[in-house]
UniProtKB/TrEMBL annotation:
Record-stated family: Belongs to the polypeptide deformylase family.
Source species: Bizionia argentinensis JUB59
Cofactor annotation remark: Binds 1 Fe(2+) ion.
Keyword Hydrolase: yes
Active site residues according to the UniProt entry: 148
Gene that specifies this protein: def
Protein name (database record): Peptide deformylase
NCBIfam families linked: pept_deformyl (TIGR00079), PRK00150.1-3 (NF001159)
Cofactor: Fe(2+)
Record keywords: Hydrolase, Iron, Metal-binding, Protein biosynthesis
InterPro entries: Peptide_deformylase (IPR023635), Peptide_deformylase_sf (IPR036821)
Residue positions binding Fe cation: 105, 147, 151
Enzyme class (EC, first level): hydrolase
Amino acid sequence: MILPVVAYGDPVLKKVGKEITKDYPKLDELLDNMYDTMYNAFGVGLAAPQVGLDIRLFLVDTSPFADDEALTEEEQAYLKDFKQTFINAKILEETGDEWAFNEGCLSIPDVREDVFRKPTIIMEFHDENFEKHTKTFDGLIARVIQHEYDHIDGILFTDKLSSLKKRLIKSRLSNISKGKISVDYRMRFPNQKKKR
């Protein structure tokens, strides 16, 4: 089932997510719904706060980046095959020189800005079967993971922008929070009542 994506301005996007256990109610169904929602919106990542849940859960599928002809065949193959569920993730280490990449977010449609992040991360997480992993990620995959990880810590990519950039996009962000935007996927705006 495709869920509405929570728009900028909703308080759930600023909450630090809570860890969950493998007994979390209807976890498999939630994961299926989140993947459906992400693909429907042509996203490469989606975090639980973006569907209104303040829990430490996000998913990533970087296959859309594999079509970038500027990448080597090896990089394209790496991105094409990367799909992962992250539960109760913790970034243990971030290394390397920060690099800029133009980021966007399904909760903040039509706003894209350069964000600086470190290129390599070591992360501990559980997968959808609650098996624990410690893995190193780099490049675009690390960037997508860091973006989604920020969501479970209540951080949006716009929080990482300079004061000047924030002022320049303030009215656009305000319009998003008021629902004054047209998107190709379901969204829930802060002033809308949550349907049970």
